[in-house]
Write a structure and sequence with these properties.
Length: 122
């Protein structure tokens, strides 16, 4: 089974695009296992205080909470390391993170302007 790392902005964009995550993901990578860093969950919980409708209950049901790699503090660095080490794509719309992922041998899934998911691999 393929794994997908969820980034906070990627989840928010997915919700905004009103995409069914299971159907959309199955079109590009099959049935994935969704992985959520504790730090990303904290970011989303903080964001939900200012913005409603993030479907955090759905994310909790669908994802598996994982710990950060040892010695890393910044969320993007954690996502980069896990993606590179394991070959897991990151669901994100963050331009800088996407560039860093490609430059370090990682991959990502983005939401296009037509509200479809697209896998980008190095």
């Amino acid at each position: 089974m393929n794994c997908v790392l969820i980034d906070a902005c990627g989840w928010a964009a997915l919700v905004d695009a009103e995409l069914n995550i299971d159907i959309s993901m199955s079109k590009i990578i099959g049935k994935p296992r969704y992985l959520l860093l504790e730090k990303v969950k904290q970011e989303l919980e903080s964001l939900s205080k200012q913005r409603k409708g993030l479907l955090l209950d759905l994310l909790d049901k669908k994802s598996e909470l994982i710990k950060a790699p040892m010695g890393l503090r910044h969320t993007d660095q954690m996502l980069l390391e896990l993606s590179r080490e394991n070959g897991w794509p990151v669901l994100t719309i963050d331009r800088r993170l996407k560039e860093r992922l490609i430059n370090t041998g990682g991959s990502y899934i983005e939401i296009t302007s037509k509200n479809v998911l697209r896998l980008i691999q190095n």
